[in-house]
Each structure stands twice: as structure tokens, then as C-alpha cells.
Amino acid sequence: MITLTNLSKIFRTELIETHALRDVNLQVNEGEFAALTGPSGSGKSTLLNILGTLENFDEGDYLLDGKSVKGLSDAALSRLRNEKIGFIFQSFNLIKDFSIFDNIELPLRYRGLKASDRKQRIEQALELVGLHARRDYLPGQLSGGQQQRVAIARAIAGEPRILLADEPTGNLDSLMARQVMELLEQINQRGCTILMVTHDPEQARRAGRHIQIVDGQLHDSTLYQPLAAVQGA
Amino acid sequence: MDNLLHAFALALRNIKRAPLPYLLTVLILSLGLGMFFSNATLYYWLNHDPLPQKSHSLFYPQINSVLQPCDSCTEPMRVLSYQDVQKLSSSGIPSAQAAMFQSAGYARLPGNSDVSPTPVRLRVTQRDFFTLFDVPFLHGERWADDTARRELILSKASAERFFGRSNVVGETLRLGNELFTISGVLQDWEMLPRLYDVANGLNSARSADIYLPWETAFDLGIKSNTTTMSRDERDYSDNFAVNGREGQFYQAQFWVQLDSPQQVTAYQQFMQQLVHSEKEAGRHPRPEANRLTNILDITEHFNARNRQLDAFALVSLLFLLVCLFNASHLSLNRYLASQYEFGLRRALGCSRSQLQQLILADVAVSAALALFLSLAVAAAAMSLIASLLPATRNLTSWNPLMVLTMAGTALIACYLVTLYPALRASFGSLNRQLK
Amino acid sequence: MSLTLLFKSLLQRKVITALLLVQLTLTLALLSNSVLLSSQAYQLSNQPTGLQLDTTLAIELKPTDENLIVHPALGDLIQRQLAALRQIGGVRHAAFSNQTPLLFGGMNGNVYVEGKQDTTNIEMVPYNFAEAELFDTLQMTLLHGRWLSAEDKNTDNVVITDKLAKQLFSDSHLAIGQQTNGGNIVGVVADMMYQRFASDQYFGLFFNRDLNRADYGYRLLLQVEPQAVAAVRQQIYDSLRQVEPEIDIQQVVSLRQLHRDYFEQERGLAILLSVLSGLMLVVAMISAYSHALFHGVQQQNEIGVKRALGASKQRILVEVLSESWLTTGIGAALGLLASYLLQQQLATVISLPALPLWLPLCGALTLLLCVTIATWYPAAIATRVSPATATKAL
Q1: Is B353 on the interface with A (CB under 8 A)?
Q2: What's the CATH number of domain A29-56+73-232, 3.40.50.300, 3.40.30.10, 3.30.420.40, 3.30.230.30?
Q3: For residue B73, what are the contacts with CB-CB under 8 A and spacing of at least 6?
Q4: Which tens digits make up the pLDDT trace of B63-100?
Q5: The model's pTM
Q6: Which of C272, C297, C339, C345 to mutate against chain B (most B CBs within 10 Å)?
Q7: Which residues of C, range 49-78, sit inside 8 Å of B by Cβ?
Q8: Residue A150 CA to chain centroid, in angstroms?
């Protein structure tokens, strides 16, 4: 699903070069639920951004679904993001003056789906996150946990192959965080690959695979765990 | 279609989101555009070519024919005498030629001697006037030849004013103490700028009410009511039929139509020969100073440009610049404020071109609003200008093409103002904005 | 905040700062040049006229019957009209002339000292028909010699204005008894503003003759008691129509109105530019306002931290204001240069005096004041940020 080979990312300013990622090799298989942990500044977000094609890398290669993303045009990358990748952010990133429905519709529009198809998918997604009754609410009228569920609905409405979640429960209390985790696990069981940045050791344990990143380098505790075991988690 | 509607709906929503900055941006843009449009309108009417199909072939000849010797007098008179016209008419080269001047008189219906007469604007001219400037006839036709005749040609408006209808060919009208037959009625006709009479600074004045034959005016002692100059001691208030024709009484404009470069050269040669033979006869003591000026250069030639408007044009252009800079400054702020949302859209798979569509919709909405507002500003500015500089009063109309151009300008201005901010927002790095 | 820090913060936002500077520069350039033009128009319209603007009325008229347009019927008509006008209560003096002071157009001719055409020729001098009563009607002041009387009718005797006399003879009292191509000078009167487009606006030459033909109409001038002006104006039409209905009264105006129209172009342009300058100041204020508002919001966290670290509201306010002062200051310096450049450009198109330094400096101060006012409100809002909320978001 995801293959990174010798991938490096360097931030340059006039005075210094910082290796945000150094020779990263990573293989994520279809259907895995992987947790990415590490101290702040270790390169987690950079890795996630690169995986989400929001950011370029300097060296190495990134194969998504067997195809290199290197050298793809902006339009091709946008298409890739739109069709294969779903994002979940710590601060939800819902557009405040769009209704729940409109927020979820956004990526479907970029894909160019017909209105009826969009509607069907949005309703399925809302059904899944259990917010069908709130479809015309504005984000501000929902609790944090509900907002994050809307964001998840938005991420999965396009039926992506990979879900990239950047501390999805970081802004939630423990009860809501648990609900969101359960939702993610449910989505993973349907076959969607999930890569999640987290600080919570409990969450990292619950994920089938735990990848640690320190100073731009990976320490993968479960690298050789068989696929079946992940699915059974 | 669906996408387009969506884009426009978003554009409107963006306005609702931050109405004050948005309105200020559009307001500033409209102020700049409005002042610019008002000025451009005046400028257009003052400088556009009123006869694009034939302006290249219309020329104003002058010779330095004044009889008092003066070696330093190297500029010919701005207006011509009857003698000048006679001589310059004798070449047979132009396809059309007519002398003319503006005058004023009093007209009334022959039966109504107890009603006070109506002041009328007269143009004394020859039959080719109507050919030279493509003046359209509604009824009747131009005079049969250039001899004196008691025949008038009326504008449509004055036919209707005196007779209540336009087809009045064959009717009689009293002009001063003389009776005239009406031989033609013109269609509504205005030439702006009125290039055939800029020598008198009348380039934005209205067309005449009544056209009167050239020779008849000399017979009746009707003179120009604009520039007249006499360069001898004759009494021009007495026996003008003779004195006006023989003396050095300068009052006329004279236009010739020369269709080809060969004709122009031939006419220039004719003027040279004319001046040489005049010199030989001792009737051209001043230095030779022949001029043959094209109608499009005549305003400059007579130094009749409205300098005040030129200055204002310069300043209003600068004002537009200021407003453009200002509006782009404001819209940069606006776009930077929503940069996070651009990033989010990009993360959700919106390509740059899709983003550009959204921005274009935004631009279109702003442009429509700005156009509407700027037309209002322009109308207000023009009425202010017209009240302050009355000479511009007839220059304030808009035709569809002008409105279309203004709409295009508004669109371009809005796009320019949005271009940099939009580029910056949509090409900015994606990683920083989302957490 | 130190100046270097301020500069750094400006440099970080190069584009926005550049936009702001361009706009401030142009604003100041326009502002100072419009004030320059306005002051020029003001000076022009405040030149001495030598005329009683409010109490002198001019009637422009022309017979509509061609029999009346020629001497002697014309002269008779004029005398009857003047007699009737003198009957109106409040009319002190009435006289006829071929033209009116302060009105464009009319009869102009060249004037030179007889025998010295080469050295003394003056191209355009207004030639005015003048009878005895014109002197009192225009409230002239006699400087040398005498005014024209009925005995001068159709003679060669003329009176000229002081400035014309000085131009011809270097000292005006030397003019008396001199022969010009226009006639023999018998008197010199104080200057009056006659025709703007003549060789000089104070030139004038007066002679007493019959008007042979009134192809261009003629003028009747009235000197009226100050309190009776309005009443006299109302009666003029009826009074003249009773004398002779076959006339066209083209207009009745006071010299005050003519004087206003005399500088119409300059006045118009000056007003237009002032309006434009006003708009520019508004635009500059809007710009400063939204700039401060936007960056105030953007810097809320920063301001919150500063507040938490002990900066007073006042201090924050000064910091926000001093940034806009700095930009305005730089803009003003550039604007000073631009003012002179624009003045040069405008001077190629219209006549314009040199730009005194104090003018753009005052303009810069005005600009600074406007920007400060516009920045005040958003700056005050920015200082209101509670340190607690601002820092929490960090």
C-alpha cells in the first residue's frame, strides 16, 4: 500500500539545514492500523504530510499503491489525495459556516461526482458516524467529539484506501476520544488502512502496529508482524 | 453548471463571512474605477474619431494670405477670408469641398409677426458640407449648387419646433427679415467632437439648427458670431455683399476631401503654385506658410485641447493606481485570512485549477459589484465635472460598447487585484496551515 | 518596540508594505499638487478687478428686427432703452457698450504708438465703445487727463487704462496727448479687469462713437444701489420690452457672476482635484484601518504574550501605532519626491507655479493625522486582548 524507500526531508534556512526525516524506510500494508508516536519535533507531522502528498521530499522514493508519487503534477497529486487519501486533523478543520452536509460534500465535489451520488455517499458516511440527524447543523453547534466524527465522515465519504489521522483525539476528553477510536477501528475493519499520529500510549497499544520516530528515524516495533495478526486486533 | 453555481454560492458566502473588508475593497476599487471611467468618457468623446471611415481624407488648408507685409509672421490665420476660399476652391482636385462658419439669427413662421422670434444657431456653408461629414438627410436634399439661393436646410429638431412635424420641404420660414424656402431636413445628427469647428473652441458644442447657403449669407451681411478678423480699413458694417467678398475679412473654415495620397500631393502642389502666382502678382507679401492639416490633427494644430481635462486625466489615472494598490492590499489581507481554508481544500483533493475556478468566481462577483458601483461613482463624478466645466456637458453619454469596455476593465481590475493574493494563497505551502 | 524590530517586522511583509508605500506616496503627491492648484485658482480669483462686482449689472441683447440693427435706428433704440432703465428705482447710472468687462470675446485690436509700430505694437487690446456715462456706470477712477464727453462723439479721442499706458509709454502720465493707431489719448483711467485672453487682462481702450451695426448684439451696463440689485433685475425685462418688443435679451448678469465664470476652468479643476484628494485621504484611511485591524487580529497571540509579560495597554497601542507611523513616514518621504515629479508632469500640461516645500510637508502631516485616526480603533481593539485567552491558544 505504502512503500517508503530511503526517504529524506531536509528543511533549509539561510543558516542551517535540518534533517526532518533521514533515510526512512517504511512498508504499510493494506488494511493495517498503524500508530505513529514520537516526541514533538521528531518528524511525525512531516512524515504524515509527505504520506498525504501535502509536502515534497528531497531524497528517496514514495510508492503509493505501487506507483511512485515523484514528479506527479499538481493536478495528479490533487486527484490522488482526493481519491485515495482521507485526512483527519487534531483540530477537525471543519469550515465553520458550512453545514455538516456541505463540509462532507467538499471532497466529493472535487472528485466531480453527480449530486445524487454525492448525497448517497454523504448519507452513508453520516450513518456510519451516527450523526445523520445533525446533517444541517453548523460545526459550532456540535460538541468536539461530534465535530471530529463529522471530520471522519468527510474523510471516509470518498471511500479512501488510506486514512491519515494527526492526533485525532488530541483535543477531546477521554470519553469522546474513546468513541472516536472505536469509530476508527470500525473503519479499519472495513479494510481501510489507517496511519495515526498519537501521543497516547494506550491508543498506540490498541493499534495493530506501533511505529516510533525519533530524530527523523523510524523504530518499528512490529515491523514483521503478519498481516493476519493485525486484522485480528 | 453545478460546479459553477457552487463556485458562485461560495463567492457569496465569502462575502457574508467578512462583509466589511469585502465591501471596503469593492468600494475602493469602485472609487478608482468610477473616477477613471468618468474621465475616460470625456476623454473618449473629446478624442475619438467621429468619422472613422473617412477622417483620413478630410483636410483643412491654410495659406498665409494677409496683405500687410510681415516677415516674422510665419503662421497663417486660423480662419479664412472669402478670397482665400475662392482661390483654394478653384483646384478641381478634391472630391468635395466646403467653406463654413457659425452664426446666429432669429427665425419665425412667416404669418406670425406678432410672436417674438426664436433664436437659432446657424451654420453658413456650401452644399458639400453634407457630403464631407456624412450628414444624413431625412427629407429633401442638399442645395443644387453653391450659388446664392433663399433655401434653408433644417435639423429635424428645428423642423419639429417650428412646424410640429419633420417633413417640411417646400415650406417657408422667416430668418431675420428674409423669407426662405426649406429644401431639406436632416436626420438627428451630432458630430462629437465637432472637429470642423475646433478653431473656435467649439469642439463639444451642439450642431446647428439651420444651414444657410454661403453666398446668401454674404449677400445678406450675415457674419460669423465666433472669430472674425479684419486686416484692412474697410467698414464691414456697410455693404457686406461687396466688402465681405473683396476685403480682408477672415471668418471661415474650409474643408476639402482628398481621398488618395496622390490627391493630397496634387493639392499641396496646387497650393504651392497658387501662392507662387499670388506672390508674382504681389498679393502674398508674407512668407509662404501653407498648411494642409488632417482632421484628426486639427485639435492639436489649433492648440484647442482641453488642458484641464488632460491634467485631470493624468491625476485620475494615478488615483486608479492608488485604488488598485489599495484594493490588492486589502484583498491580500482577505485571502491570507482564509489561507487556512485554501490549505484544507487542497488537502481534500482540490487541484490548483479547481481552486482558480473558485477564485475566478469570486473575481466575477466582485467585478459585477464593482462595475455597478463604479458606474454610479462615474455618473456622479461626470455630473460634478459637467457643472464645474460646462464645456464638457455634451460629452457624458455612454454607448453599449463603452459600458462593455468598462465592464471588461472592471473585470481585469478585479482580477489584477486578486491575482497576487490568490496565487499566494493557492500556491503557498500546504503543510503549515493544517493541524 | 525598537526601530530595528519595527523595520524587521515591515520587511517580513514586503509585499503588503510595498503596496502601502506606493499608495501613500501617490496620495501625498496628489494631495500636495491639488492644494497647489487650488491655491493658484484662489489667487487668480482674488486679483483686484477694479470693478464693483456686486452692484454692476450687464444686459446682453440684440434686436430681432433687422431694421433695428443698423444706425441710426439702433442708436435711437439704445438711447430709449437707457432712458427707460434709468427710470427704474435703484438704478444710479446706465450706459451702453459693445462689450462687458470679464466676458470672453468681443472686439479686440492691436495698439501701437503712431510711427513706432515695430517697437510698441500690442496684439490684442479690447476696443470699447464708451459714452460719457460709462465712467460712472463702471465706477472708474480717472488718473490723468479727462474722460470722454458728448463732444468726443465720433472724434479720434480715446482713453486707455493705466497698464496699457505704462506698456506704451513706460509712465502713464506721459500718455496724454499721444497719438496711437487707435486714436489720440485724452485720458488714463485706473485698471479694470477686461478680457482674460487679451494681451493683458487689464488692457482696455475706450472711444465714443456710434455703433453702426449690432451684428453681435450690444450690452447695457447698470450701476445699481446695493440694496436694489434684486429688484432692478426683476424689472429689466419688462422695462426693455415696453420700449421695444423686437429684441432678444440674451442674459442679465452681475459682474460677480461673470467674475466667477472668468476663472471657471481653474476653479473647476481645483475643485475636482480637491474632491479627488479627499477621496484619496479616505482611501488611505480605509487602508490603514484594515491593515491595522488585520494585523491586530493576526498578532493577537503575540500581543497577549506581551501583555502577560507586563506590557501596558498604552505601550501596545503605541507599538501598533508606531508601525503605521513608520510606514507613513517612509511613504511621506517618497511622496515628497513624487510630489515634485507630478508637479513637473502637470506643468507640461497646464500652467502651474513651483511647489513650495511646506506644502508637501503639511500634506504629509495631514496624512499622518488621518492614518493615526484610522489606526486608533483597530489598535485599541488589539490591546483589549486578555493575556489569558491569547496565551492559551499558543
Answers
A1: yes
A2: 3.40.50.300
A3: B64, B66, B286, B287
A4: 999 988 888 889 999 999 999 999 999 999 999 999 99
A5: 0.79
A6: C272
A7: 64-67, 70
A8: 14
